[in-house]
């Protein structure tokens, strides 16, 4: 039987990517009691890494799509951390988003909304969360966005 969140993903036409493997010496997530801490997920899609500097060669809309891609990777990691059952997610607690932007770019919150909006679309009120959106002079592999998350399981 399909779970409620899996049915919601299908209804939204969302197919989760495979949970990305770590790119260095760290684990993709840590489960501590009922909390899941997911390492930063970088912006990528079926075509590979989404790279570039937001506010220069990358538009706000492209960066929002990259933040959404980070959110999909977070949910894929979360599914793995929850033993395959996204219905165990009790709360999206906090997201921290990093935006690879030019110095005078000031719309970091609007970029990270690409991920925040996804969490609410998928999890409803359980997807509402605390958040930080931070500008960065560079990110690994020149990706546009990196987002980490903290979640609570039931």
UniProtKB/TrEMBL annotation:
<feature type="domain" description="Endoribonuclease L-PSP/chorismate mutase-like">
    <location>
        <begin position="7"/>
        <end position="143"/>
    </location>
</feature>
<dbReference type="InterPro" id="IPR035959">
    <property type="entry name" value="RutC-like_sf"/>
</dbReference>
<dbReference type="Pfam" id="PF14588">
    <property type="entry name" value="YjgF_endoribonc"/>
</dbReference>
<protein>
    <submittedName>
        <fullName>RidA family protein</fullName>
    </submittedName>
</protein>
<dbReference type="InterPro" id="IPR013813">
    <property type="entry name" value="Endoribo_LPSP/chorism_mut-like"/>
</dbReference>
